[in-house]
Design brief:
This protein is of the alpha/beta class. The protein has three domains: 183 residues, 3-Layer(aba) Sandwich (Rossmann fold), CATH 3.40.50; 82 residues, Helicase, Ruva Protein, domain 3 (Orthogonal Bundle); 100 residues, Orthogonal Bundle (Arc Repressor Mutant, subunit A). Strands 2-3-6-1-7 form a five-stranded parallel sheet. Strand 10 and strand 11 form a beta hairpin. The longest helix is centred in the middle third of the chain and has 16 residues. It is globular and about 65 Å long. It starts with a helix and ends in a 9-residue tail after the last helix.
């Protein structure tokens, strides 16, 4: 039977899964059901939807809650460092190995290991992981001794692993080894009733963290948040609210403080998804250029004329000005430069183009100041 301490931890962890939607209720029940078993759990869903939060809640509600919870980012654990990072190494096994290490699996002994972004793992490394899951032993680098491990495995990914298996990018046997129990998260736009609840909780956390009175959302601001598509999901909501608190003059957050959101249409109209489409719609409403804060834009009543003084064309059948492709490209270049602090090499990398191509585009739009590396 679990102790009162672990039960309290479990309740606190489940309480972190915030929401009144049917999905939120179902996930909380699923966590309580699977936590008492030792089976592997695969958590699937888009980025920013709380997959690690679910994994931590499963661990907190389990018999292993007093032991370690070890998260591993599989997207960065690659190449020759994988075996050492995951299974440990012995002293002298390679250059620089001045002492022995446990590795993540042995560090999680009797606890839980969380393999985040498992879909990003290279095929060769998947084979090594599969053997550990099957045999329940690890072999440290530089050793031939098999060391038993008692670890529960939780994994998460934003990829469709069935499709990855079909495409030959993910091992089928590893998929079935991990997919004993599956919990799926959903985008925030599919549970809009949870947005006010999540916002209230996060605003309270912000107030406690910074030692200031709690801000509240006006009804108009709530409606704006519920209409937005949330491509970044809950993580994006938290960032938007933190910015809104900074830009609010009082203890109430109005829609004006949410100007970083690029919401398309009027009430009842579907939200626009996709960053370029959102920028185009934002431009029609007067958002013309970014500020140094990511996602926050300068707002003017109407679109300014372009660099050559031409008036922008209106979309057929509408009274609103519609940005040209050049307008959208210029805005995206400005946004990228602001996000990279004018570092053109990094901006070119983010945009997926050669630096010489970026330089020509900046010169075309009069954005090249010949600095910022």
């Amino acid at each position: 039977m679990k102790s009162m301490v672990s039960t309290s931890r479990g309740n606190d962890a489940i309480d972190r899964i915030i929401g009144i939607s049917p999905w939120a209720e179902q996930v909380r029940r699923s966590i309580e059901l699977v936590a008492v078993h030792q089976s592997s759990v695969l958590i699937l869903g888009p980025s920013g939807t709380g997959k690690e939060l679910i994994a931590r809640a499963i661990h907190a509600c389990s018999m292993r809650s007093k032991k370690a919870f070890i998260p591993v980012d599989c997207a960065v654990t690659t190449g020759t460092l994988f075996a050492s990072h995951m299974f440990g190494h012995v002293k002298g096994s390679f250059t620089g190995a001045t002492s022995s290490t446990l590795g993540c699996f042995r560090a999680a002994e009797s606890g839980t290991i969380f393999l985040d972004e498992i879909g990003e793992m290279e095929l060769e490394l998947q084979a090594k992981l599969l053997r550990v899951l099957q045999q329940r032993v690890v072999v440290p680098v530089g050793s031939h001794e098999e060391i038993p491990v008692n670890v529960r495995v939780l994994a998460a990914t934003n990829r469709d692993l069935s499709a990855e298996v079909a495409a030959g990018r993910f091992r089928e046997d590893l998929f079935y080894r991990l997919n004993v129990v599956a919990i799926k998260t959903i985008p925030l736009r599919e549970r809009v009733e949870d947005v006010p609840v999540l916002a209230t909780r996060y605003l309270a956390e912000l107030a406690a963290r910074h030692g200031m009175p709690m801000c509240a959302l006006s009804q108009a601001a709530v409606e704006v948040l519920q209409r937005y598509a949330w491509p970044g999901n809950v993580r994006e909501l938290e960032n938007v609210l933190e910015r809104a608190v900074m830009f609010s003059s009082g203890d109430q957050i109005d829609p004006d403080a949410l100007s970083g959101l690029m919401v398309g249409g009027s009430p009842g109209e579907p939200p626009v998804t996709g960053s370029i489409a959102q920028m185009a719609v934002a431009a029609t409403r007067g958002i013309v250029s970014p500020t140094p804060l990511p996602g926050v834009y300068r707002v003017e009543p109407t679109m300014a004329p372009d660099a050559e003084g031409r008036a922008q064309q209106a979309a057929p059948g509408t009274a609103e000005e519609w940005p040209t492709l050049a307008d959208v490209e210029r805005m995206h270049l400005e946004r990228t430069l602001a996000a990279t602090m004018q570092n053109k090499s990094l901006a070119a990398k983010m945009l997926g183009i050669d630096r010489s191509v970026l330089r020509r585009k900046l010169q075309r739009y009069g954005l090249d100041d010949s600095g910022g590396e």
